[in-house]
Design goal:
Blueprint: H1 2-26, H2 28-31, H3 34-63, H4 66-71, H5 82-111, H6 113-130, H7 137-142, H8 152-179
């Protein structure tokens, strides 16, 4: 089961990077837009779903083989364990998310300084828009563009926060696949 999750996590991670590169080559600012970044979640969910479905089918088929039916006194169909159905998409999510954050950190800090500048300007404007009309707006106005440079520590923090959401998605996906 873990081999399937790892394989699908690596594949999905590569697909996410290729997807982001496609937007990068089309328009750098578009690659950094929240719509494109959040749209990668569709790729995450697809990889998680296919891996979970594959594990569910393999576990179900091992219980329904002719030899197991003849050897077994019970003819009940055993279901995939919820634990394996949650862990599979969660592992896919964690691997894919690691690829995403490593790519994001690398492309901004190593590969393209122009994209980093676009990111800093967009993030500053997003923060100004978000805090408009609040007490925190004066603090945001004091920020310089270098304050919005992606760091390894910030990427790890976002990765960990994403893991919480990834677990919730994995649990919901396991429930859905288990019903099929």
């Amino acid at each position: 089961m873990n081999k399937i999750a790892i394989k699908y996590g690596v594949y999905t991670g590569f697909v996410v990077i290729l997807y982001m590169f496609a937007f990068y080559f089309f328009d750098k600012a578009l690659m950094r837009s929240p719509k494109v970044i959040w749209s990668t979640m569709i790729l995450y969910l697809a990889g998680m779903f296919w891996a979970t479905l594959k594990v569910h089918r393999e576990e179900g088929s091992s219980y329904n083989s002719i030899g197991s039916i003849l050897d077994s006194t019970e003819s009940e169909e055993k279901e995939s364990s919820l634990r394996s159905l949650v862990s599979t998409p969660f592992i896919v999510f964690l691997i894919t998310n690691a690829y995403f954050w490593f790519f994001f950190l690398w492309i901004m800090n190593v590969y393209d300084a122009e994209l980093l500048q676009i990111h800093q300007e967009m993030t500053h404007q997003e923060m100004l828009d978000f805090h408009k009309g609040t007490d925190k707006i004066s603090e945001v106005r004091k920020n310089v563009l270098d304050d919005y440079t992606p760091t390894f520590a910030a990427s790890i923090t976002k990765y960990m926060m994403g893991a919480i959401g990834g677990f919730i998605l994995s649990f919901l996906m396991a429930l859905i696949v288990r019903r099929t």
